[in-house]
Amino acid sequence: MMKQNNQKRSLSLAVTAVLLCFQCTCSFTTTSASAGRALLIKPFATSLRGTENDEVERLRNKAAQLRNEIATLEGRTVEEVENEAREKKKAALERQQQNEIKRKEQKEAAKVNNVRDGRFLEVPSTPDDMVRQAARAVERAFQDGIARQTVRFALIREDQFVNEDNQWPGGAEQMAREAGKPLTRELLRQVRAPTKEDLDQARLRLPPKIQEQDIWTFDGSALFTAEAEAGANGDIQALLFPNTDVKYTNDIEKIDKDMGNRLFLLVNPFWRNLESWGINILAPGAKKKAEEVIFNRGYDETYSLLRFSCRGEECVALKVYPYDWQLYAYREDFDYAIGGQPMEIAIRLGSCKGEPSSEHVTKLLNEREEFKDTRAMRKLRQL
């Protein structure tokens, strides 16, 4: 009985194989014959078709013989055997098509997820790169209806790289003069945020006129206005370095009212959240007013580049609207050096929805092979 079952399975597989070969040969015959009419001289084309037809006939006879043998062994009709072979072939083709569709869907899903969570983002290297990245994030947010935004730049001079550390012995005035003002000025020069679709697009593309007004020089604070060539409906304002003083809350309230639905930015404010106001006995209502004027109005962080140290590694947290926070750590590459110093490469660690904590970043660092050794240990190995 076992031997007979093995014979049945072997014959069944043979029939399926022959049918597949038969189909391929027929397809080849048609294609080759068609090509022969276009490219080959007639006597050779006729000979080729004759040879192929003989092969097709041989396979057809072989398949018929196998079907007869299976039908005899199983006590079925030849028609039943043929139907079974066709069904198996059909099922195999359907599985192949489904697997192909599944692979395509997985590939597309990977692309969508990659775009959605922002893992394609890169840490900018220069101030120009950072401003361009911020400008596009601000524009996307504005197009989504966010007219009150917060932008936090890494405060670097125009001749520095993002991963360079710097000291500001001159305090807020120096920070504003050498970093804050140039970055804000360039951001407003690049951003376009028209509130009306019928604005002259050609004029809107022209660089706006930038006006700058110092508020408190010892704070480094200033108000910037970008007057669009296309008209007031494309104007933008940005307040640089506001802090928790009541004056800035009042200024923000007034500018917010004057700007209406036009874009208004807070650039590098000196607060992190509402708790930064604390308790001020000289201004007991300051925290409540800040909540109403600032936090209840939005001022979402649509762009932020934060540099910090975690577990001895130099890290970056990057927020680019509308994507999640992207987390990176710099890893020195000793194969490439500039001025005797190894080049620093930003390696992506992961992402998170909210502003990252040091605990989360430490966990990500511990999981990466590149940061198994501390920065100090890696440098010692190169000595």
Largest sheet: 9 strands, mixed
Structural class by helix and strand composition? alpha/beta
Low-confidence stretches: 24-45
Alpha-carbon distance between the two ends:
77 Å
Helical coverage, percent range: 40-55%
When the domains are counted, the total is 2
How many distinct beta strands?
9
Strand neighbour order, sheet with most strands: 2-3-4-5-1-6-7-8-9
Radius of gyration: 35 Å
- Strand % is 15-25%
Net shape: elongated
> How many separate helices?
10
Name the helix and strand elements from N-terminus to C-terminus, one letter apiece.
Answer: HHHHEHHEEEHEHEEEEHH
Average pLDDT: 83
Fold blueprint:
Layout: H1 2-39, H2 42-74, H3 78-117, H4 127-143, E1 148-152, H5 171-190, H6 201-204, E2 209-214, E3 222-227, E4 236-240, H7 246-259, E5 263-267, H8 286-293, E6 300-310, E7 313-320, E8 325-338, E9 341-352, H9 358-367, H10 375-382
Parallel strand pairs: 1-5, 1-6, 4-5
Antiparallel strand pairs: 2-3, 3-4, 6-7, 7-8, 8-9
Helix pairs in contact: 1-2, 1-3, 2-3, 4-5, 7-8
